[in-house]
Amino acid sequence: MLLNKLLGSALILGASLWAGLRAAARLRRTQRELRELSAALEGLAGEIRYAAPPFVPLCRRAAAGCGGAVRGFFEALAGAGERPDSCRAGMTRAACREAGLALPEPALAALERLFDGFGLADREGQLGQLALAAEALRRLEQERSVQLAGRCRSCEMLGLSAGAAVLVLVL
What we know:
Blueprint: H1 2-50, H2 55-64, H3 68-82, H4 91-99, H5 105-115, H6 123-170
Helix pairs in contact: 1-2, 1-6, 2-3, 3-4, 4-5, 5-6
């Protein structure tokens, strides 16, 4: 009987700690994706400034320079741009869902403003939109980086504390 209690206690504490660690890892992942997206947008601006490729090849080049979910995001955008019947509205959110990007709403809104209307402005207008979106992502990443260590520690401790509380209630 004592062994069952010990095993159950370990499972409760382990599961809650795992949930806290997973939440902290998601915060770190979001930070990394914001940084990578910001750099990719700056690369897109250079491509447009010097070569002005069409949307699909531009997204393919951006995907080649990225990794993970950001690569999947640009590949999904390129795939959506290749479909002749595709509607641009909602394309960015669908690409984020498909790639599994973990972005906060302000970042998603900045990307949506950029990519759902991509190509509707002249070169200078497009470069301005890219600069605005990259700046919004960079600013959000900087704001979140100040709080990142504390928020991650809070998630980890909250997971452990929740497990301990459940353990007290069960025993």
